[in-house]
Design goal:
It is built from 4 helices and 3 strands, in the order H-H-E-H-E-E-H. The chain is α+β, with helices and mostly antiparallel strands and 146 residues long. A hairpin with a 4-residue loop joins strand 2 and strand 3.
Length: 146
């Protein structure tokens, strides 16, 4: 199955972001992917597991209307209380459609209930893997102005 990823948009965001953002995004999502896989293999009935990291989203240090995600979206606006970043497609999944994952400016979290479906696990896994792939692209910082 071919999954949809917003590579044109993601390329524009990466180009205008500092190269150090890629390192943070790779570190964050690699840790989340490992935690997700560990939770899936060790889940127990009536049990909720959470992994909380402390990397956060490097793009979230501004207001949504000033964020690189919104600036390079192509529409020049954001939905109130929802930045353009949550709508970006990574392997056909966006942050607003993933039930097991939360990103914040200063931390991130992956969580799983004992009854989390294999479909939700696989969707979250695909999203994280595409995020890591994006962080490995050579585009980062090529048009960044300090």
């Amino acid at each position: 199955m071919k999954y949809n990823t917003d590579w044109d948009w993601l390329k524009r965001v990466a180009e205008h972001s500092p190269k150090s953002f890629a390192t943070k995004i790779r570190k964050r999502n690699t840790a989340l992917l490992h935690a997700l896989d560990r939770m899936w293999t060790t889940r127990k009935k009536n049990y909720h597991q959470t992994f909380k990291g402390r990397v956060g989203c490097p793009h979230c240090n501004r207001f949504c209307d000033e964020c690189l995600w919104t600036q390079h979206h192509g529409f020049g606006y954001y939905v109130r209380y929802q930045s353009a970043c949550v709508n970006a497609k990574f392997n056909s999944e966006s942050l607003c459609t993933i039930p097991c994952l939360d990103y914040n400016p200063r931390d991130e979290e992956v969580h799983m209930y004992w009854n989390t479906s294999i479909k939700d696990y696989q969707r979250t896994r695909r999203f994280l893997k595409a995020h890591i792939e994006w962080a490995n692209k050579p585009w980062w910082g090529t048009k960044h102005q300090k």
